[in-house]
Fold:
Amino acid sequence: MNAGEPLQPLKATKYLEELLKTGYAVKGPRNDPDRDAASLRRFLERGKEYTPENWLSDNGYKFVEPSTFTKGHRIAYKLIDDFPDERFNTPYSLVKDGKEIPLYMKTELPKLD
Structure:
């Protein structure tokens, strides 16, 4: 990973480890960067994907601020082939040099039987 390179979506633990080596820390609900990184690592191992907020805005996503309608979440959305791609803010962020970058997770649609 080159200095100044924009952050990409986190899909695998390998990329998270690269970010941690370059000075990023994980901020999360445990208020302990090591435990929060371990928790985020487990989510990635289960196939979850986390997307940095700046990547979303750079790729044309719009944002809806938290409200009762969004159940208190900030939502990022974009129409892709006339189908909405929605992501909600999570309690995890990446922090480096005092700058915090919120992480978003894709909204999973309910399974139809």
Summary: DSSP finds three helices and six strands in the chain. Strands lie at 25-27, 50-52, 62-64, 75-80, 83-96, 99-106. The helical segments are 13-21, 33-45, 53-58. The CA atoms of residues 68 and 74 lie 11 Å apart.
